[in-house]
Amino acid sequence: MNGQILTWCEGHRRCAQCLQPCKELWDSDKNQCQRQCEKHHECLTSCEFLKSIQMVKQGDCPAPQKAWGFAAACVQSCNSDTECPSSRKCCSNGCGQTCQAPANMFKGVPLKPRKELSFTEDKNGNLAVAWMSKFNISMEPVFYILQTRWNSGMYPSEDDASKWETIAYTIEEHVDLKTLRPNIWYQFRVAAVNIHGTRGFTTPSKHFHSSRDPTTPAAPRNLRKGNFTASHNGVFSLPIHWDPPQEEDLFIHHYRIYWSQWVSRKTVFLTKKENWKIIEG
Where would I find the WAP domain in this sequence (predicted)? Predict the structure, then answer.
């Protein structure tokens, strides 16, 4: 998640100010960033922000005397939080450094937003997703990560739903979405994040299903034929290829193919016979 936060921050005017003027030094040499910034408060703040975003995990290191088991061993098993699994941090035990469970996991971390999300859809199918934050006392800015998952079909289903996907970062308490498809069941969840970390995502929202009628798929493109072959038992084969149309509102799962054949009779007239077949997409 830290990498995603940094990417969002670089594209956001207010947040990107925290990355300068030490961003170039950090990219080239993390140690040089710290040394060059010692006498410049603004640069030092930028350096600490970058370090926190990219290397420091949520929570505090426990007191050295509280380490036990392997965590208390006199070894240098890690150098930074990024080398420790899951939520563990690289902490001193008074004799060495080991991966340990953090203390004060949620110190300074914003509360989760209220779990009830509201949905407002306009006539064009654009959806406004909004939420309400619980009261937070935080000196640092709080921003929100919105995720969605979906399933197709007549009924909502969490068992058949896609994986959760991040679709927006924002400092507001709402997001306007313009790429949702009709005939799809969507769920959403949101997390509040600051420099200290996050308490995780809200429980999944109720399902949202657009009231807009879906448009029919466009026709396939670039129809072309392969080599014509005839077998000894009188069966003729002709492979047909095409490019699928751009998917819009509905997922394409089958194609219906029509073809005609002209049958020669004893008379001079030709008889046209139409055929069709459905194949999977």
Answer: 54-103
